[in-house]
Structure formats: C-alpha cells, structure tokens
Amino acid sequence: MRPGLAVVLVGDDPASAVYVRAKAKASEEAGMYSITVRLPAATTEAELLQHVDQLNADPSIHGILVQMPLPKHISAEVVIRRVRPEKDVDGFHPVNAGKLLNGDTDGFAPCTPAGVQELLVRCGVKTKGAECVIVGRSSIVGKPMAALMMQDRPGANATVTVCHSRTTDLAGHTKRADILIVAAGRPKFVTGPMVKPGAVVIDVGINRVDDARAKRGYILVGDVDFASAREVARLITPVPGGVGPMTIAMLLKNTVRAAQLSAGLA
Ligand code: NDP
Q: Is residue 26 a contact partner of residue 36, using CB atoms and an 8 Å limit?
C-alpha cells in the first residue's frame, strides 16, 4: 500500500505556501501519494468542512493536514475537530491531544514537538532527570512539548517547566535549563546570558525579519540569538535547518503510521 497525505491550504499566506510546498515535496520524495488542495481565501467554513469530509472518506488518503493559520472567518477549532482522529497526522485533534497527555501511544503527537524529541534522542542528549525549560505554551508547540518531555519513557522523564508571557523572572528559569526549548515567536528573544553553560538549546522559532541585503527582502531567524547563545550552549539548533526539517520528517512518520493503522498493521 502507498501512504497518502492530503495538505489543505486556504488563502495565499506566503509563509504557509512555502510550508505546504515543502511538505508535498518531502512526501513525494518519500514515495507517498500526495495531494495539495488549494482553496481561495474567500472559502467559507462550510465549504472547507466539505473538503475535509471528502478527504475523511477517501481510502487513498491516510493523513490530512489543514495548514494553519486559517483566514479569520474560519474557526480553526471547528476544522481541527472535523478531521477524523485516525487521519489527524498533525496531532491537533482533542482526541490525539488527550492521548498524548495520558501517555497513550496509539494517537498522533504534533509534528514539531515530536521532531524536537526525536532530535534530542538522535543526538544522544540525556533527558532523564534533566531540567527542561520550555518558553511558550501554545497548543501547537509548548503544551504538547511539555507533555512529551514529562512522560515516563525513554527520551523523556525530564523535569519540565513551562514559561509564558506572564512568567516572572524568565531568565531565572531559562538559566536553570539543561534542555532549553524556545517557541515564543519572537526574533532572537533568548540571548546567551539567559542560557546555562553547557545547555542544549532547541530553537523552534521561525521569524521573517526584513533585510534589504537579502534577495527576497527578508531573512529567517529563530527565537534564540544564535550568535550569543552558541558561545554558551553545548548543542544548539540553527534556524533555518534545525527543527523545521524535523517537523516535516515527523509528518511523514505519522502518515506512514496512519496508513499502517488503517490496514491493521501497527
Ligand atoms: P504562539 O504565538 O502561538 O505562542 C507563543 C508563546 O510564547 C505563547 O505561549 C506566549 O505566551 C509565549 N511568549 C510570547 N512572548 C513571551 C515573552 N516575552 N516571555 C515569555 N513567553 C512569551 O506561537 P507558536 O507556539 O505557534 O510558535 C512559536 C514559534 O515557533 C514561532 O516562531 C513559529 O513560527 C515557530 N514554529 C515553528 C515550527 C517549525 O516547524 N519549526 C512549527 C510551529 C511553530 P502567552 O501564552 O502568555 O501569550
């Protein structure tokens, strides 16, 4: 059987278009069946739900990803809940979010946090008993990241602290971290002095910053100030090239598993 992934893009947000192209290209390169459903920005919520229903019913499609953000007139929550949990390879459906929190392994973990964990494991970073500080508490990154790192299993078992915009003394927390995961959506927000010497720093952020010297008029930077943080950290991920490709790899992994599950193979 051939695992099938459908990516749905509504509107013409340039960053979303780049992500969708990258996901389609990676799935084709891996030999998967891949379709991209491109819909105009004026698509109504009802029309989008119809497309989701069609993909839910399509046996050649095992994974469905609706690219976020959606236009303001469409409720992301309603759309996320409409994707069948068995095809929710983004891991955003409440059923999968609940399974992740419970430690059930038969659901799908969101791709970015799962990719961060895989990166830590593949780089031989000791997570058991480590102080893991996460900056950001979104449902896409921060919260599932915390749920993954606190599980009682290999590649996890960390002591987790989650920081957000109301955290007092942020640097006091980040400086304690053996593993510092930053997903704040703020360019170069975490600097070298906020990092514990010898820490492992994972920069989830992807920010477009205007730069007249760049061909496209902007450059991509992370949420960590790479130049100052690398002086202090033992290991640090670059932006671009660090967490981004891992996110796509985990999407493919989830899709393969969704296909296996549909055939009773996993
Ligand atoms: P959100 O904007 O949804 O969340 C940002 C989080 O950071 C919030 O919890 C916010 O706190 C917290 N925050 C903001 N400012 C501060 C501050 N001054 N001090 C402490 N905490 C703060 O972003 P996402 O989680 O969706 O994304 C985070 C980053 O990761 C973005 O740069 C995004 O582009 C990138 N990203 C990268 C992916 C990849 O594949 N590499 C995938 C997904 C995201 P509060 O809740 O209080 O507002």
A: no
